[in-house]
Write a structure and sequence with these properties.
By secondary structure, the protein is of the alpha/beta class. β1, α1 and β2 form a beta-alpha-beta unit. It has a single domain, classed as Rossmann fold (3-Layer(aba) Sandwich), CATH 3.40.50. A three-stranded parallel sheet has the order 2-1-3, sandwiched between helices. The protein is 33% helix and 20% strand. The longest helix is centred in the first third of the chain and has 15 residues. Pfam families: Resolvase. This is Recombinase family protein. InterPro entries: Resolv_N, Resolvase-like_N_sf.
C-alpha cells in the first residue's frame, strides 16, 4: 500500500518541513506505513486554486489507484474556497 502525504504552504518563503514530518509520522504510526511506502506531494501555492502541480499529480495517482489513503496536516491543505 502506498500512502500519499500532501503538504502545501502558500508562499515560497514558508517551509514544508513541519508538515512533512507530521504527515510521515502519522502514516508510520497510525497506518503502519514504512518510509518506502510513502509518496510525498509538495506544493508552494495558494489553496484557493487546484491548478497546483503536486495536487494534480496526487489526484491523478488517486484516480489510477496508485495510492490508498491521502493525508494532509489540515483539511485546507487540499483545497479551500
Amino acid at each position: 500500500m502506498t500512502v500519499a502525504c500532501y503538504t502545501r504552504v502558500s508562499t515560497a518563503k514558508q517551509n514544508l518541513d513541519r508538515q512533512l514530518n507530521s504527515t510521515q509520522q502519522y502514516a508510520e504510526d497510525s497506518l503502519g506505513a514504512a518510509l518506502s511506502d510513502i509518496e510525498v506531494y509538495r506544493d508552494k501555492s495558494s489553496g484557493t486554486k487546484t491548478a497546483r502541480d503536486a495536487y494534480q499529480r496526487l489526484m491523478s495517482d488517486a484516480e489510477d489507484g496508485a495510492n490508498e489513503p491521502a493525508i494532509s496536516p489540515r483539511a485546507s491543505g487540499f483545497e479551500r474556497e
